[in-house]
Design a protein that fits this description.
InterPro entries: Formyl_transf_N (IPR002376), Formyl_transf_N_sf (IPR036477), GART (IPR004607), GART_AS (IPR001555)
GO molecular function, one term: phosphoribosylglycinamide formyltransferase activity
Order of helices and strands: EHHEHEHEHEHEEHEE
Number of helices: 7
Family: Belongs to the GART family.
Oligomer: single chain
EC number: 2.1.2.2
Enzyme class: transferase
Bound molecules: 5-O-phosphono-beta-D-ribofuranosylamine
């Protein structure tokens, strides 16, 4: 399967995919064909360049409207003919045009146990709420914010040492679980196929 990965930051989830694929895309069942971002100059793009991958940047502020940005992101992504789009720390909400083109084939990873704590501050919100466990969720993107059908989840304990100031430390612990969860989920979707029925994701040989 051809993957386009969208990033906005450090790109450690992207790196985990690249490391898992290594020199055996056949074995993994997928290869990253391009990396897109909503801003330049981020480590995620450097990781892509180090891997010799094509990259593209679509900045919201370079477009007169959000819809035009969405169009541009869709075109830039479609140019690489992805079978799956992986949003790995991409911090923009894709629009109607993008979902019309890639709906059912966009996978997102979120650093909280959805449906709890959706949105851009999942780690901070879970800490503030005082949860005893949190974690991460790999899910398909639908027209809501972090509301699509869930593919996989991983749990991370929250301890007494996890103070609100320690959001970054907790997020790092979540990211350790998240990277493994994403690599395994994407590999299975790519190798075994899947079918989405309402909120349920059926993994495995499609059409049997
Ligand atoms: C990940 O935890 C992702 O879930 C969240 O931001 C982080 C991105 O990390 N949206 P990276 O850019 O993959 O290192």
């Amino acid at each position: 399967a051809r993957l386009v990965v969208l990033v906005s930051g450090s790109g450690t989830n992207l790196q985990a995919l690249l490391d898992a694929i290594g020199d055996d895309p056949e074995g993994y069942g997928a290869q990253v064909v391009a990396v897109g971002a909503d801003r330049p100059g981020i480590a995620g793009l450097e990781r892509a360049e180090r891997a010799g991958l094509p990259t593209f940047v679509c900045r919201v502020r370079e477009h007169a409207t959000r819809e035009e940005w969405d169009e541009a992101l869709t075109a830039a992504t479609a140019a690489h003919r992805p079978d799956l789009v992986v949003s790995a720390g991409f911090m923009k909400i894709v629009g109607k045009r993008f979902l019309a083109e890639f709906g059912g084939r966009v996978v997102n990873t979120h650093p909280a146990l959805l449906p709890s704590f959706p949105g851009a501050h999942g780690v901070r919100d879970a800490l503030a709420y005082g949860v005893k466990v949190t974690g991460c969720t790999v899910h398909f993107v639908d027209d809501g914010v972090d509301t699509g059908p869930i593919i996989a989840q991983g749990v991370v304990e929250v301890t007494e040492e996890d103070t609100p100031e320690g959001e970054a430390a907790l997020h790092e612990r979540i990211k350790e679980v998240e990277r493994t969860l994403l690599v395994e989920a994407v590999g299975r979707l790519a190798r075994d196929g899947y079918r989405i029925e309402g909120r349920k994701v059926h993994l495995g040989h499609v059409g049997e």
